[in-house]
Specification:
The protein is an alpha/beta fold. The chain is 28% helix and 25% strand. It has a five-stranded mixed sheet, with helices on both faces. Strands 8-13-12-11 form a four-stranded mixed sheet, sandwiched between helices. The protein has a two-stranded antiparallel ribbon with strand order 2-3. Helix 2 crosses helix 3 (111-118).
C-alpha cells in the first residue's frame, strides 16, 4: 500500500505588495545604524538576488487559519470527496493566527481544529493537529500522512500549509521584504497502484545551526519586548548549499529511479539564486547536465510564504495556472525544503 495525492488547492491573498511599497521604509542594521544604501538600491539588490518582484499579504480581517480553510476547501472540491471521510487534518504553520495590528500569536485551539470547524465536519474521529517544523512543515506533514496511511491508521488525510509571515516581520529589517502570506493544501489517500510517495528523508540540524532563524528585537528599537522573525542570511545560504543537495540525492537514490527519470523538482523558495545553486549542485552529484525547466519558480510574484510555497506551486501546476510547466501521469517529481530548525526534508513522488 502507498499513498497518493488526489486533490490540490491553494489560496493566494489578493493584496499585492510590490517592491516599490518599501521605498519609504527606514531600514537599520543589527547595530541600530541606518543602512547607507538608498531604498531603491536595496530593493534592486533584493530582486537580483532573490528574484522577488512582489509578494502577497493577507487582508486585515484574515488570519492563517482562514487562508488554510480556503485552500482546504479547494483541495476537497478538487478531490471530489466528502470531508466527513477525512481521518486526519494536519496543519503546518509556524506562528499560529496573528491578527492584523497584534503582536500576539493564537494557537489554542489548534489551527487544524479551526479549519475542521470551518469545514463543518461532524466526524469526531477526524483527528486535527498542528505541525511546527519551519518552512519544511508541509512536506513533513505529507511524510506523516503517508506513514499513517501505510500503517493502516488512515485512508484519507488533508495536509495544509498556511502562514501570515507579514504579521511577524520587523519593518526596519530589509530581510522583511522576502516574506509573504499564503496557503496550499492536498488530499492524500491510500492507493494500490504504482503512483504515490516512493521515498522520503527528514533531518534536523540543531547542534550549531539552532539560531539561524530566530525571534529577536527590532533593528530600530532593541529595548522593546516585542520580537520579530530574524535570520542569519549568509549562514542559511551556506548551510542550504552544503546540505540540501546532498539530502535530495540521498532521498532520490532511495527511490530507486535513475536521475534521467526525474521530471520536476518542486523546492521551497526563499531565494531564487540559492535554489538555482542547490539544484545545480544536485545534478553535479550525478555528473549529469541540469535539464531545462526542471525547477518551476513562483517566488517572483508570491515571495517566500513558508509552508505554503510547495503546495501552492504544486496546485498551480496541476491546475494549469503555470502553462509553461506540466506534470503528467507517470512523472517522477522530487519535493524538497529547508528552514528553521534547521530542518531539511524531501520526498520522491510518482504521479
Amino acid at each position: 500500500m502507498s499513498s497518493k495525492i488526489i486533490g490540490t488547492g491553494h489560496y493566494t491573498p489578493s493584496h499585492i505588495v510590490k517592491n516599490t511599497f518599501f521605498q519609504d521604509s527606514t531600514f537599520f542594521d543589527e547595530n541600530e545604524q541606518p543602512l547607507k544604501q538608498s531604498n531603491e538600491i536595496i530593493t534592486q539588490k533584493l530582486k537580483e538576488i532573490t528574484g522577488i518582484e512582489e509578494r502577497r499579504y493577507a487582508m486585515d480581517d484574515q488570519v492563517a487559519s482562514d487562508l488554510g480553510f480556503q485552500a482546504a476547501q479547494k483541495a476537497i472540491t478538487n478531490a471530489q470527496i466528502d470531508p466527513e471521510t477525512l481521518d486526519y487534518i494536519i496543519f503546518a504553520h509556524n506562528f499560529g493566527d496573528v491578527k492584523h495590528g497584534s503582536i500576539q500569536s493564537d494557537m489554542v485551539p489548534s489551527l487544524a481544529s479551526r479549519v475542521k470547524h470551518l469545514l463543518k465536519i461532524k466526524n469526531n474521529f477526524c483527528v486535527a493537529y498542528d505541525l511546527l517544523f519551519g518552512c519544511p512543515g508541509w512536506v513533513e506533514g505529507v511524510i506523516q500522512a503517508n506513514a499513517f496511511i501505510k500503517a493502516g491508521l488512515a485512508k484519507k488525510c488533508l495536509i495544509i500549509g498556511a502562514e501570515t509571515l507579514s504579521r511577524v516581520i520587523d519593518p526596519h529589517d530589509r530581510d522583511s521584504m522576502i516574506y509573504a502570506d499564503g496557503a496550499g493544501a492536498v488530499i492524500m489517500e491510500s492507493s494500490d497502484d504504482d503512483s504515490g510517495l516512493k521515498s522520503h528523508i527528514s533531518a534536523s540540524f540543531t547542534l550549531n545551526e539552532i539560531d539561524y532563524l530566530y525571534f529577536g528585537p527590532s533593528y530600530f528599537n532593541q529595548d522593546s519586548d516585542t520580537k520579530y522573525l530574524k535570520m542569519k542570511g549568509r549562514k542559511i545560504y551556506e548551510f542550504a548549499l552544503t546540505n540540501v543537495s546532498k539530502a535530495m540525492k540521498k532521498c532520490f537514490d532511495e527511490s530507486g529511479y535513475d536521475i534521467k527519470d526525474l521530471a520536476k523538482i518542486i523546492i521551497h523558495q526563499a531565494n531564487e539564486k540559492m535554489d538555482e545553486a542547490i539544484v545545480h549542485r544536485f545534478y553535479q552529484l550525478y555528473n549529469t547536465p541540469q535539464p531545462p525547466d526542471i525547477m518551476p519558480m513562483i517566488i517572483q510574484k508570491l515571495g517566500n510564504n513558508s509552508v505554503a510555497t510547495i503546495p501552492t506551486l504544486l496546485a498551480m501546476i496541476l491546475q494549469g495556472e503555470l502553462p509553461q510547466h506540466k506534470i503528467n501521469k507517470g512523472d517522477i517529481t522530487l519535493f524538497a525544503s529547508v528552514g528553521a530548525g534547521m530542518n531539511i526534508n524531501a520526498f520522491v513522488y510518482k504521479f
